[in-house]
Amino acid sequence: MFSGGLTRFPIFGKTAGKSSELWKGEFFRIPACTAEACLYDEPLLKMNARETILLDALLEAVIDSHAFRAVLENGHVFTAYIAVRDRDKKLPKTGARVKVEMSPYNMSAGRVIV
């Protein structure tokens, strides 16, 4: 099929040469991988640059100079951090209600919005 040193790509089950251009040509000829086959107008993998969740939390205790133990309204306990760029601003006290930005992939830590 291809000349030169042959490499097996287990994802596609095809044999391709060491040149990346050869297997790219084979990949784009697979109809299931094209946008026309799926009837999408936009690329298949489209994500926001940054996905975050904004929640209200209560600061329970101080862990470090810029870290707090926080609790959401549903009882979920996590660590809330003050961002480095916000450390020169007025810091919240224990018992304060604050807005917290959390990642949907890691619900054990969040960033306090000051």
TrEMBL record:
Keywords: Initiation factor, Protein biosynthesis. SUPFAM superfamilies: Nucleic acid-binding proteins. InterPro entries: NA-bd_OB-fold, RNA-binding_domain_S1_IF1. One of its GO terms (molecular function) is translation initiation factor activity. Residues 43-114 form the S1-like domain. The keyword Protein biosynthesis applies. The keyword Coiled coil does not apply. This is S1-like domain-containing protein. The lineage of its organism: Bacteria, Pseudomonadati, Kiritimatiellota, Tichowtungiia, Tichowtungiales.
